[in-house]
From TrEMBL:
Keywords: ATP-binding, Glycoprotein, Kinase, Membrane, Nucleotide-binding, Serine/threonine-protein kinase, Signal, Transferase, Transmembrane, Transmembrane helix. Residues 1-22 form the signal peptide. Gene3D superfamilies: Galactose-binding lectin. InterPro entries: ANXUR1/2-like, Malectin-like_Carb-bd_dom. This is Malectin-like domain-containing protein. Residues 31-290 form the Malectin-like domain.
Amino acid sequence: METKTLHFLSLIIISLISSSTSYSPTDNYLLNCGSATNTSLYNRVFVSDASRAGSFFLSADRSISLADQNPSPNSPALYHTARVFTTPSSYKFNIKKNGTHLVRFHFSPFAARGFNLSTAKFSVLVNGNVMLNDFSTQVVVLKEYIIKANDKMLEILLRPVGESGFGFISAIEVFSAPKDFIVDYGAKLVSADGIEEYQNLSLHVLETIHRINVGGSKLTAFNDTLWRTWIPDDDFLVLKTAAKRVATTHTPNYQSGGASPEIAPDNVYMTAQQMNKDNATLGARFNITWIFQWVRVMFDTWFACIL
């Protein structure tokens, strides 16, 4: 299948009126790969893929469970094990309700029993779509994709490539996205060549590249209804003196049918960057510029974030 890189800009005007409850996905699969026991992360239980319940998802003729004998004291237990595949192998998940789903892959390389996971090279496919091609990593990595699941089954295939002869994975998440998480119409790409509108965005496979909290501090998955981490925008600002952080103490109220805590947590909407007009050295004409590959922008008169 041909892969197309899609960049889009979506502007969502936020009306802050009513409140929202915590999110409970219809499909919610969390796997602790290569472990004999379940483990928790951010109050979520990841089921062992070696247990009776977890092994139901695994389809592998030859796979190996590995445990890190010298894990970092600060790393979560979820990253102390991994499942290694020496042949193409898959995980299959029953989809109760078709629609947009989030799929996350956790990779935490270590060395054990003759395997150095940092030398692994492999591809990862979801329902035949290539998510990662000739992938390898020497550091802990979390990859997130937004996928439209239209069938009763979602299959994740791991396929070793090259001379390494194996691939690995530490944990998998597959869960339903909130309603209208990806809006099919209204997203526009603004460039020097003009304005291009994208339609049927939910039919595309999207990858999260950056999740930025503009004007705010780092937000961890513990305080996010979709278990996401948001990082500050400082490192992406071209000219830091052109921007000035502003914040409000008022928590947002959400309008039915509009934004919700599933799009971004309260703290994201409570901070922003404003043009620093107090800096006389910049002159009268300037703007605030960030450099990154971005997926979605949300803003209000005060509140802004980049996803």
